[in-house]
Write a structure and sequence with these properties.
Length: 892
């Protein structure tokens, strides 16, 4: 339905309302009737799939856990974009409490736009504007009598408009897009503030170690979050406010009594007796924290009944990064980030869980669901575990809408398992899981068995561990899955392993425990080459699966093609069918520099199944929806260079690759490849614009070259062998001819030098080897050609998109067509290419001397472009490409 058709349908809806009003029936319409007959049809005409006929969850009913307030959530792609609060026509929308409710709900859900409507009128609020007055949050108000003559404003609520971000743009124009802190950011900020206040106060009034303080303060804050959630879900009265209003002294003592009551009522480990209850605390600090849990000084109101677990998870991943007692400058650096951990965006978690656990659930009979075992071996705050809980609950609810609370407990006890090296993370994961089932006052399950602390990568018998770590092996906190989770391995292993394992390059770790490197190498030899923990977790995860089980990880995209991970890829191909690969054009993690990929694997012993399996390749749209792009037969990975998971492969490309490699020799057979000069100290000290002595050498770097040419900017290097960190060979710069190529870039850029230029390490030098008869300009033409750039990008290039490095070992693999100089035809092709390159070098040299946009300059540019195309055609002929094969190359 287009905009004009929508307008016509909404006109009819307005006319229907007018008939109801004229008949005096408005007061008889309750909220459900208003919503069903007017509000939902209105938004359906605005393009939203109100009944989810063609989408999974574009519009969903939102309700808090205790079954209270109900709202509609509208999603574009996978992202909630607005919440709508529907009211009966007889309700007065101008009552401030309705607007406050809608705004507060949206803010606590981290959604900008809150809509309040009874169809008689629509109010659009920006929930992100700092809370001063409702009028400041109000952006647009439209009465239904004006729906048609103000239709362009009404259309801002259409699905089409959200796709184009028209509401945001309109608000920006009118200064109504000013943002306050999102709920996650604000709550994290407050948690940090409360933690600092508690830490200082408890340290002042008690004799405690840093470790005791760290654990105790976290336990208190976790309990307070649990209590506030129970209050906002109407399971408990406002007991914390009751402490403040009691007028009694020693507020901390009163708070401890609440902890004891909650232990009696919920029987959770969270409220078990803890040494922190013996501490002394000032009333001022306790009062400030309790008040802040309801409303901040700036007017932010927290509603823990609607703050989602993924928001809490994000807060806690940052929260875990705060380590008591560090110097102030170190507090900004998250401990979790230093361990290679970032909180995983919700849409990625949901995709991984759907593609792994979702597939297992599809094939599982209802009575067998509680036998499914799901593991996150590096669970952090539990985001994957809570998503797994949601997925199982969703499946059970479809089978039987009335799910008992004890069935929900069973999901936690029977289906969900997690391990993390950080004991604080484990406590928080347990808390987040308990919040999932907190809906009434009853004894909650204890999760110490299912979600435990330990090192998922280190296990073995006492004898084995002592061999590597000596008598202090327990310091490694080994975790023997087969012993700790016996019930799982009685069934053959886990059905699902999911997560975002840490990415720590152990070679960069200065304080690697004695014996750990050798243990990891011996236990997980598949990751040899580069010791990164994600490789060990991949191997461990597959080992823990039963046959037919699924693994879903988000990990660095270096797994796809980087040479270091050849053995790991071979292990995967020998043990798993790769179900899907998701590649990201943009970095999915805020503030991260690692480029990621999602891998979904299915463990299978059948070689035939593995080799013939179709791997689904997904791409991520701007709205964060994941779309299947194509599929690749897995056996193509077996045939690719070093078992690379090349997501651009297909039979046509592989066939062309094989053709290009016929009758060739590697580039490294013809040239020496050397990275240029890396200086030990600041390079500015050694660079000059004047030649102040015989040791001053003309020097260039990556900025000074282009395809075929060097553009020297009169810079000299004060050559001092003692100042050079690497590349101390001066002879490679003094040859009569040589080539340079840039180390960073998306394509190969090679330049010709016959002026004995020196170079810095943003360039790599190539010199002909002794006894090689081909002309170096022949190699340059091939290096710069479209054809071999296609070969490099398709089969050799790193998957890294940011600062993609062109590595010498990759360049060494480029196939160079052999030349038999005894064959007149081959010699003629060689000589023609060399002649064309000589002409190209001369033309570019002339062009560089001319002022731009003169007739001669423009004429030369066209000649160079023509010659460039001619060289490409000569290279195509050299390798014998057909028109169809050329099309494959040029459509890359």
């Amino acid at each position: 339905m287009n905009k004009q058709e929508a307008k016509q349908q909404i006109q009819k809806l307005v006319e229907k309302y007018q008939r109801v009003a004229e008949a005096g029936k408005i007061k008889s319409y309750n909220e459900a009737q208003t919503r069903n007959e007017f509000i939902e049809p209105l938004f359906e005409f605005l393009g939203w799939d109100m009944r989810n006929l063609t989408t999974d969850n574009e519009v969903t009913t939102e309700e808090n856990v205790s079954g209270g307030r109900v709202d509609l959530a509208f999603r574009f792609g996978n992202i909630p974009v607005m919440f709508l609060e529907a009211k009966a026509m007889k309700v007065d929308l101008d009552e401030w409490k309705w607007a406050e409710q809608a705004i507060n709900y949206s803010w606590n859900k981290s959604v900008t736009w809150a809509i309040l409507t009874d169809f008689e009128g629509i109010k659009i609020f920006n929930a992100e504007i700092p809370p001063k007055s409702i009028l400041q949050n109000l952006f647009i108000e439209i009465k239904c009598r004006d729906f048609i003559n103000r239709f362009d404003q009404l259309w801002l609520l259409s699905k089409e408009s959200f796709g184009q971000k028209l509401l945001d743009k309109e608000a920006q124009k009118w200064g109504k897009l000013t943002q306050r802190k999102q709920v996650g950011e604000k709550l994290f900020e407050d948690l940090m503030s409360w933690r600092v206040s508690f830490t200082k106060d408890f340290k002042k009034q008690n004799i405690l170690t840093d470790e005791e303080l760290d654990e105790g303060v976290q336990r208190i804050l976790d309990r307070l979050i649990f209590i506030r959630t129970a209050e906002d879900r109407k399971i408990e009265p406002n007991v914390l406010l009751g402490i403040l209003r009691s007028g009694k002294a020693n507020l901390y003592k009163q708070l401890v009594k609440v902890f004891r009551d909650f232990d009696d009522g919920f029987n959770s480990k969270l409220f078990a007796l803890h040494y922190c209850e013996e501490w002394k605390a000032s009333d001022k600090i306790i009062s400030e924290v309790i008040k802040g849990l309801y409303e901040t000084k700036n007017g932010y109101r927290y509603d823990f009944s609607v703050i989602s677990t993924d928001v809490l998870g994000g807060i806690y991943e940052q929260y875990l990064g705060f380590v008591q007692g560090r110097k102030s400058e170190d507090k900004q650096k998250s401990k979790r980030k230093s361990q290679g951990i970032y909180y995983t965006p919700k849409y990625i978690v949901e995709f991984i869980v759907k593609e792994t656990l979702g597939e297992v659930l599809k094939r599982t009979k209802p009575k067998e669901i509680f036998k499914i075992k799901v593991l996150d071996p590096a669970c952090g705050s539990g985001s994957f575990l809570t998503a797994a809980y949601d997925k199982i609950l969703e499946t059970l609810t479809k089978q039987s809408p009335q799910i008992s609370l004890f069935a929900k407990f069973d999901i936690l006890k029977e289906n969900i398992f997690g391990v993390d090296l950080d004991a604080q993370a484990v406590e928080i994961a347990q808390l987040n899981l308990l919040l999932k089932v907190l809906s009434q006052k009853t004894k909650l399950p204890t999760l110490q068995h299912n979600v435990a602390s330990g090192n998922s990568l280190v296990s073995g018998s006492t004898e084995t561990l002592e061999k590597y770590f000596g008598s202090a092996y327990r310091e490694q906190r080994p975790f023997n899955f087969e012993e700790e989770f016996k019930e799982v391995f009685e069934q053959g292993g886990f059905d699902v392993v999911v997560g975002n394992p840490p990415y720590v390059q152990l070679s960069m770790e200065e304080k690697l425990p004695d014996g750990l490197k050798k243990f990891l190498l011996d236990a997980y030899e598949s990751s040899m080459g580069r010791l990164n923990t994600f490789g060990f977790f991949m191997r461990r995860g597959v080992e823990l699966l039963k046959d037919g089980g699924y693994l879903g990880f988000i990990i660095p995209n270096t797994i796809l093609t980087q040479d270091y991970y050849e053995k790991l890829r071979k292990y995967v191909l020998d043990n798993c069918a790769i179900e899907s690969i998701v590649s990201f054009d943009n970095l999915p993690f805020k503030d991260a520099v690692v480029e990621n990929v999602v891998l979904i694997l299915k463990k299978t012993t059948s070689e035939r199944t593995r080799d013939n399996h179709k791997v689904a390749i997904y791409k991520v749209n701007e709205d964060l929806s994941l779309v299947r792009d194509k599929s690749i037969i897995q056996k193509l990975f077996i045939q690719s260079h070093k078992y690379g998971f090349n997501i651009h492969l297909d039979e046509g490309r592989l066939k062309l690759k094989r053709k290009l490699e016929e009758n060739t020799r590697l580039l490294s057979d013809s040239v020496e490849i050397n990275q240029a000069i890396a200086l030990k100290h600041e390079r500015a000290k050694y660079l000059s614009k004047t030649k102040d002595g015989s040791n001053y050498k003309p020097v260039i770097d990556g900025r000074n070259i282009g395809r075929y040419f060097v553009n020297w900017d009169n810079t000299y290097l004060r050559y001092d062998i003692n100042a050079i960190h690497s590349c101390k060979r001066e002879d490679i710069f003094l040859t009569k001819e040589k080539l340079f190529f840039r180390r960073v870039g998306d394509r190969l850029i090679g330049a010709y030098d016959d002026k004995q230029m020196y170079a810095l390490n943003t360039l790599v030098a190539m010199n002909l080897k002794e006894g090689v008869n081909i002309n170096i300009k022949y190699l340059l033409a091939l290096f710069n050609s479209k054809l071999l750039n296609w070969y490099y990008q398709s089969f050799l290039k790193s998957t890294k998109k940011v600062f993609s490095e062109i590595q010498a070992r990759q360049i060494a693999q480029i196939p160079i067509k052999k030349v038999d100089f005894g064959n007149a035809g081959e010699k003629q092709k060689h000589d023609k290419i060399v002649s064309s390159v000589s002409e190209m070098v001369a033309l570019i040299a002339e062009l560089q001397k001319l002022p731009q946009n003169t007739d001669r300059y423009n004429h030369l540019k066209k000649e160079i472009e023509k010659l460039d195309r001619q060289i490409d055609e000569e290279v195509y002929k050299l390798y014998g490409l057909t028109n169809e094969e050329i099309k494959i190359v040029e459509e890359k």
